[in-house]
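Transforming growth factor beta receptor associated protein 1
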Amino acid sequence: MMNIKAFTLVSAVERELLMGDKERINIECVECCGRNLYVGTNDCFLYHFLLEEKALPAGTAAFTATRQLHRHLGFRKPVNELRAASALNRLLVLCDNCITLVDMLNLEPVPSGARIKGATAFALNENPVSADPFCVEVCILSVKRRTVQVFLVYEDRVQIVKELSTPEQPLAVAVDGHFLCLALTTQYIILNYSTGLSQDLFPYCSEEKRPIVKRIGRQEFLLAGPGGLGMFATVAGISQRAPVHWAENVIGAAVCFPYVIALDDEFITVHSMLDQQQKQTLPFKEGHILQDFEGRVIVATSKGVYILVPLPLEKQIQDLLANRRVEEALVLAKGARRNIPKEKFQVMYRRILQQAGFIQFAQLQFLEAKELFRSGQLDVRELISLYPFLLPTSSSFTRSHPPLHEYADLNQLTQGDQEKMAKCKRFLMSYLNEVRSTEVANGYKEDIDTALLKLYAEADHDSLLDLLVTENFCLLTDSAAWLEKHKKYFALGLLYHYNNQDAAALQLWVNIVNGDIQDSTRSDLYEYIVDFLTYCLDQELVWTYADWVLQRSEEVGVQVFTKRPWDEQQKNSFNPDDIISCLKKYPKALVKYLEHLVIDRRLQKEEYHTHLAVLYLEEVLQQRAAAASQGSEPSDTQTKLRHLLQKSDLYRVHFLIERIQGAGLPMESAILHGKLGEHGKALHILVHELGDFSAAEDYCLWGSEGQDAPCRRHLFHTLLAMYLHAGPAAHELTVAAVDLLNRHATEFDATQVLQLLPGSWSVQLLCPFLTGAMRDSIHARRTTQVAVGLARSENLIYTYNKMKLKGSAIWLSDQKLCQLCQNPFGEPVFVRYPNGGLVHTHCATNRHTTPSSPSPGTRT
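Predicted structure tokens:
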């Protein structure tokens, strides 16, 4: 793991200031409270220094110590420990197993002489249980074997609160609330001095290494564990952090969030509490004291005092980012949240995420970069600005200051490597496509969409068209110039269309189809133009390009009119007569359009039907003139003509008959005679001229469509009579007559048919006809019987109801009033309703003729 500079070691008290030329004086303990620094020595002296801190430009600081007082404590033993109780203006001094209360300013013992005797070590409770602000809670390790005591210390007196026994001799202690963390001879324990309950933590050997017990936060302690581990433990006996790896011979430890600092014989090591990695190593020999005081970390040798000055976290993070150590920088930044005001932290953290994103981007780690950009709410224009010419010329964007990265543009970042540059462009395409519809794009959607269009056009990407046919904010001027530069003329047309410049779009596309400019984006561009004009609302534009599309293909071009939504065609500019006038130069298109009017839209207008029939007829005549043989199957056009003549009732029949005469179109003549009701002529043509018996039968069917049964029966009888009157010599007609009867038995009156048939025909020959006729007759008789039965039943019901009504007497007097007119009855004639109501006969008549009159009942 690479080192970072988290702390700087600065001298606070030089040897000469402390002891002059006295060689045998050694520092035993230190205490710092605000600007006051206290030093205890081995000759029982207590020194008071005043620290002056001066900030340096590099983010560190320099300290100047001024000696205020020094006083001998009256013992011959070293000063073992010092603790400041600033609320009481007292120092607690442990010397010769006795804790003395000393004034913080003049270093004089309190006049009352209050002290705690028999202590080998002590610790202040930094999370006190007592609510009294003018006392401190002190836990001492007593000279009594396996005993711990808790005292309340006031300004001039002390008071014992609790005395507890421990399983083994205690060697070190730290306090938090009711909980004591004790280092015993062979293990660490948590002891609740209020309840007496204890929790074993883990074993260690005090003979092999010096125990360390350090309170680092609310209900959490740092302990020197086995195997050179710095272990974290809560008052519940669990560890919420992974351990840090120390040297085996650690002398002291301190915490300056987010770092754990350890002191051994030769070094000061700094580990992160966030990722447990060693971050810094400072050479420091002969050190024997390491403590933290309200965020200030002090180390000391026997001859001098030093301060570990932390570099500002922001500078540490920036140093990590400068060394491309993104993960460490982010971990440190997250850990800094507790030490920085919320709003300031959010601003700082977002910027760090953005910087980290650009570092990952430069290393082509695009997934990581994208996530960092999103989390850091990056103004995406910062990223776009790396790509030359992507931002619109009208954009007012300027890069962040100080800059988020060190690159001028993509060329510098990739050092001209085209493959890397292509990867970066693909990433930006993907990223912009994702963020363009999110809140990230708010306020500068034009910049994003314009840049995305330029990337798509340059890369010949399929998504270019998708972008332009959906909602977008591409700036017209910049985008049009870029598309023209990369010869994306079809896309440029889409851009013009999106900006309501359809005329410019169509002119571009027409030029492509005509070959004036080259663009192979769509091979079906002509069809696309036709479809575009079909749904175009600009009527003048449609008429402008109608001739062009029809000249290229009549069949396809006419779709501009045939596929147009019907509501559009109701407008004057697109009424059918105008379109027909336009299509006179294009016969194929005219036929298609008239088919659309007559067949698809079913317009009931004689001139359209007649016009279409005439066009069909002219084409059929042309085809017949060009055909080598007259007996060929009917063409598609002839089939369409026959279908139109059969199904339509709107064309001018006499006009068409005149046109057909002498044209050799007997089938069409038969259909037209049929439309005039001349069924005999029609059937005569089909039977005697064409000899098409099947067509004659079909004529009977379609000729009677929508007519009643007698009409159909008349047609079939007419056809049968025509077959039979030809005489027995016409064998084909005889066979046709038999087939007609056997196939359409239900269409004939069997009685009349039997009278017409020659006596020489056998029953077997007419078996299907006779069977069908019998079945139809029986079915009709049974259906009639059922209907009669139902009618009789209904009549019986009405008769019963009438008898029921007559079964009871009806009293009529001159006091009885008509329920409709409310007048009395003048004669014994009335109408009675089922609900018992009586009315005048003339009132009942009026009620039936005037439905809105009041009603006494529903049935009479």
